[in-house]
Write a structure and sequence with these properties.
The chain is built from 12 helices and 30 strands. With 507 residues, it is α+β, with helices and mostly antiparallel strands. The strands form 4 sheets. It has a 15-stranded mixed β-sheet with strand order 1-2-26-25-24-3-23-19-18-17-20-21-22-15-16, with helices on both faces. Helix 12 links the parallel strand 29 and strand 30.
Length: 507
């Protein structure tokens, strides 16, 4: 709709441009929800949080130890847990720690998991605990589990979280209390990793890490009933993930920090979504995960995003589930050292309850091919392999400026072209455009054309006067609205190109 307001030689116009059908790049749209954390403590499935229930569960297990402790974590940087490990060692318990190598840590990217503060705390831990714990490392160590007294009173807890304060208090993480049998099965993998797969050993802080070779005496565990692993000899986590996904009848819920669009597990999830299975995906919003998450969203999965989610888990309505340390990518499912636990019955239901609550309170929802009309409020747009913050409004205003009409007798021009916003459209549903149209002015270089004289009479001016403008032909110059009627007659008589205002603009 166009409206206008007249002045003597100028008109104001406005038009509402509907942009709702404009296409957007893939977008994370804010749900404006705030995750309401329920009780962190579960029966056998805990979650991370400010109350430190998961951290306390680790400490509680350590306090049970009388003979041996085996800790596996990518990073260790939590003072309470470090203190407990130190006290455990000082009371005569043998403590073994399996960690990622310092070389690997230095190459990890941000995301808040591996920032300099956490890495520095991890290095300080090495100096504190070296000499009390036997620490062994390798770049492929990524499992997260704590086991105590596996030969006499086995107990343990498997986590998705690194044993860092940030992970245990801030992230969305899961911690599964293991049965005695699961603790025994986990120990077999940990012993193998400790003695046959580690590459460096740290005993004395003065000596730092020293290279070690495999003992060649600890056999790789056979396939177990409850525990699954990724090692250089098995891809049981990947195989179990595929089996669980394939067995789903109508619903799958899956959570992961890392995603690889080309991986077989992610491809199978997308295929099941295309088949009509209700697939809910929980992920941390990260540029590196976008190709996989977009493929899942395009296949029909509901993809929700979090700032700090780090849990890795799969659940299906076939009452089968798994919690693991492995991300859904090659580095975790095809190689590395990872551990996971199969869940069923009560523990599977308990895990589902936590994932469902997280999904319902997720801050972001991914839309793969949106139009502007489908989205409003805060967004993150996926453009140029980057996530760009923005906000989509209901309406916005733009002044398109002043436009000069071709002639003073017709002050109408089409809406001027909207200024370019680059590759992205304007982030608004409606654009209220305004512009003014003014009459053209007589050029300062114009020369008056007089009416030809008869006989010996001198030429006289036309009324209104007529001018020859350089390169523009004849124009009729007016001063008042009363001049318009005779000007239009002259314009027709002389085939003039336009009617202009007699007073030229200052040059």
């Amino acid at each position: 709709m166009i409206t206008n307001e007249n002045t003597t030689w100028e008109k104001s116009f406005s038009e509402v441009v509907d942009l709702r059908n404009e296409k957007l790049p893939p977008v994370w749209t804010s749900t404006y929800k705030k995750l309401e954390r329920r009780d962190e403590r579960g029966h056998e499935v805990h979650e991370s949080g400010r109350k430190r229930v998961a951290a306390s569960a680790v400490i509680s297990i350590l306090r049970q130890a009388t003979e041996k402790v085996i800790v596996s974590t990518f990073l260790l940087a939590d003072k309470d847990i470090e203190d407990e490990l130190l006290m455990t060692a000082r009371r005569g318990v043998r403590v073994y720690a399996i960690l990622a190598s310092e070389a690997r840590l230095g190459k990890e990217e941000g995301d808040g998991e591996f920032d300099q503060k956490v890495l520095e705390s991890h290095k300080q831990m090495l100096n504190r605990l070296g000499g009390y714990l036997l620490l062994r490392s390798a770049p492929h160590f990524h499992a997260k589990v704590v086991i105590v007294d596996p030969e006499t009173s086995p107990a343990g807890i498997l986590l998705t979280a690194n044993l860092t304060t940030e992970a245990l208090e801030r992230n969305e993480e899961l911690a599964i209390v293991l049965t005695s049998q699961e603790a025994v099965e986990a120990t077999k993998y940990l012993k193998w990793a400790l003695w046959e797969s580690a590459e460096h050993e740290f005993i004395d802080p003065k000596d730092r890490f020293k290279a070690v070779k495999p003992l060649g005496k600890v056999p790789h565990p056979d396939a177990s009933t409850a525990l699954v692993a990724t090692t250089r000899q098995t891809t049981a986590i990947r195989d179990e993930a595929l089996r669980i996904i394939n067995k789903a009848r109508s619903r799958i819920v899956v959570s992961s920090f890392g995603w690889d669009a080309e991986h077989e597990v992610v491809q199978r999830l997308a295929a099941r979504a295309r088949d009509g299975i209700d697939v809910t995906v929980l992920a941390r919003v990260r540029p590196s995960s976008m190709p996989a998450l977009l493929e899942l969203a395009q296949a029909g999965a509901k993809v929700v995003g979090f700032k700090w989610l780090h849990a890795k888990a799969i659940w299906t309505d076939a009452k089968q589930a798994m919690v693991m340390s492995a991300n859904l990518q090659a580095d975790g499912l095809d190689h590395g050292f990872e551990l996971g636990v199969r869940l069923s019955d009560g523990r599977a239901d308990e895990m589902l309850g936590r994932l469902t609550q997280w999904a319902e309170g997720a801050e972001w929802r991914l839309i793969a091919a949106p139009t502007l009309g489908r989205v409003s409020g805060k967004v993150m747009l996926w453009h140029g392999k980057k996530l760009i913050d923005g906000e989509i409004s209901q309406s916005d205003e733009v002044d398109l400026g002043h436009v000069t009409a071709s002639s003073a007798h017709e002050l109408i021009v089409p809406r001027p072209k909207l200024p370019s916003t680059g590759a992205l459209p304007r982030l608004t549903h409606e654009l209220h455009c305004t512009w003014t149209v003014g009459a053209p002015r007589l050029s300062v270089k114009a020369k008056e054309l007089r009416r030809p004289a008869k006989d010996k009479e001198d030429p006289v001016s036309y009324v209104p006067p007529v001018f020859q403008e350089p390169g523009k032909g004849l124009v009729v110059a007016v001063r008042t609205l009363n001049d318009l009627k005779p000007a239009r007659a002259l314009m027709s008589e002389l085939n003039a190109t336009a009617i202009v205002l007699a007073k030229a603009r200052a040059q």
